[in-house]
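Weekend entry, working from home. Most of the wet-lab plans are on hold until the incubator is repaired, so I used the time to fold the two sequences that have been sitting in the queue since the last round of cloning. Logging both here for the record. First:
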Amino acid sequence: MQKRFGGAIRILADTRAPADARAFYGVDQYPGTVLMARADWMSSHPDEARRLACAVGQARRWAQSHTAAEVAARLPKSHRGDDEALYTEVIRRTLEMLTPDGRITAEGAEAARIGEVVADHAGMVTIRTIVGSERIVDMLVGEQLPRIC
């Protein structure tokens, strides 16, 4: 990555491998990608929610049974950028982090927890910044469809 951008960036932590995640977060599996949807959407679209979750599971199982190069070859070229070797390496490191069953471990969930629901700010989401101040997080815009983050 640094080579690609001519040294203009500095990687602070690369946590795509279990050993690196353990060194940085204290856990082997850190949930960096999740499928999420609003509860009201899931309640009103149970078949779609089930099919979407099954499709994500099938994609994960397929990716885990193929090489990083095979996975990269199946993804849109527009996602790869100019450096296919770098893209393939990113996929290889990402595949190492996938759990066998796609579930987040309790330790990983706790390491990724960045907040909690409280009554102090009804209808708003706030975060505590690294310097200790608190700020309001903007609401997502557009239709709140299920998304992979």
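Second, folded right after the first finished:
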Amino acid sequence: MTQEPEYRSRGSRGRDISQTRAQRKAARPEESSSRMPRKTFRTADPETRRESSSENGFRAVRELETKVRPERHTKKSPDDTAAKPQKTSLIDKLKAHAEQPQPEAWTPRNLSTPDSSKRADRHMGDYVAGLHERNRMIGDEFRRPRKGKGSLIALVMLGVIFMILGSIVFGGWFLLVRSPGQAIETGKEVTVVIPEGSSVSAIADILVQHGIVDNANMFKLMVRMRAGGTLFHAGSYTLVTGSGYDAAITALSAPPAPVEVVTLTIIEGLRIDAIAQAVSDQMGLSAAEFEARAHSGAPDYAETYPYLAGIYNGSLEGFLFPDTYEFTDEATIDDVIARMLARFDDVWQSLEVPKERLEMFSVPELVTIASLTEREASWDKERPLVASVIENRLEIDMMLQFCSTVQFLLPPERMTVLPLSLEDIQIESPYNTYRNAGLPPGPICNPSKASLEAAARPADTDYLYFVLTSKTGEQTFSRTWEEHDAASALAAEVFGY
């Protein structure tokens, strides 16, 4: 063995840093030819140094695998394949490996010398470096992006996204802006009334109906595009059909010119003839024309209000809602009827009639029940009770025999006269419930909201009779004929008949 020299100072790995490289090299023992030749790693080029280290590391890994598992690196002969050896347990393999002598290339010699220790450390470093290099190359293989197919899929998906966005934009433009409006006659002056509190959408619909603009969506878009928004005023305007969006917006942005307003008040429970007379008295329109139009004009409004389709004789009786209205002095009979029908529809929709009720009766039948309730009850608290009597009698096929249905057939001056004569109750008419079972074919007056509510939601009772027993309008309700007979005697005492 070579005597280890005495070192005056040592580096991190035991080198004599006080000696020159040539002196340290001369002091090294000659290496055996059987040993693995020493590789020089400290080259000027770092990349060359890394590649040299990697090659030695890979060689060390392959040699180790060949020694431990030689069967992986040895081709099997046909005889070996045919004769399958018996499986050897892992413990037997480890024992056999322990008994085998270590390969000479891996047997460190003269480990007590610094040079031998250095070579062993360097050889193990090469092995570890090789493992790191192999792991890095395997990782790079998995991380390497695929070319061609991924790019094509990305382009296809991008194209599909652009097609969808284009369809949405084009469809929105076509539906919201370019949707066809109604054909209009241009150059005609019309009066347009903007109700108080109307939204931009409601104003757009009014302008389209009067032919001022041809597209409500375009009008709303033009209003939104104006800087700072647009404030419209309620009132009556004189506009020209086909004048365009800018002209309409400009005109409605200014306060309307003062106009004369006519007020029309219709009380609850009137027939069409009485309403016609009120329209004539308060607005100066023809009562005869109004009555003729109201008695036969239902088919003209059935498209807007489907429940008017097929009603008896096409009469609007029961659907001209009693209320107070304001019109300009240029309003026509059709304007008055349209406003009253629109008001009825608003009230009816607000009631939210139960579904089961609509399954039992149609809208005209419910309005008929409401008209009977309106004429038979004087107090709102009694209207649901009267409606329950109507329903209870209909359920047992009992004739209604209501005096109000006969009064409907009499002249206006006799509509409130009681009692009826025998001749009155013998009048031949489908409205006469003394001669005909069930409901009359249509309403007998134009009822109030309270009566419509009672028809939609009658009280839950078993009453079959009622009679007026007070001069203030209260009635007595009975379940049996005996109770009703006693109440009728009380009514005779009160009214003297």
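Plan for Monday: verify the second prediction. Residues 39-72+119-133 form one domain.
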